[in-house]
Amino acid sequence: MPDPADLVDTEWDVSERAWVADYLDHGQVAASWMGASRCRLCSRPNGSRDLSDGSYLWPEGLSHYVLDHAVRLPAEFFEHIEQRLQALDDLQRDGTWWRRAHSTPTGAVRPTEHAQVPANQGRKWRTSGGMQPNDPATHA
Ligand SMILES: [Zn+2]
Predict the structure, then answer these.
(1) CA of 5 to the centre of ligand 1 (A)
(2) Are 65 and 140 in contact (CB under 8 A)?
(3) Quick one: 66 exposed, middle or buried, by C-beta within 10 A (0-12, 13-18, 19+)?
(4) pTM for this structure?
């Protein structure tokens, strides 16, 4: 990550920063490191893990830079977050597969019905493009 001081945008709307930071805080833990990093702007301890949404990898302290210092994310990453949140907002409940995928008396899900669920769900969650996890461009 370049010097975060060069990426501060004091005009960036605080409510927009808040939902971006909230998204960043809800990544899955991809890695844990010994000892916390320190914020490069205020020196507070700022996390020791890497988080991911399956497309991007970022240090858990990135939300602090966004929320508390108004450090702008790369446009590509910001647009990815917007698209992911919109996709979540657009999801519809489908109770029909619960009935189709009922379990057998032994508790096992019938293979043919079970196989349909991830295929349908997977399409909803597929993301296009984006950087690969571990891309150093997304690291602070
Ligand atoms: Zn800071």
Answers:
(1) 10
(2) yes
(3) buried
(4) 0.69
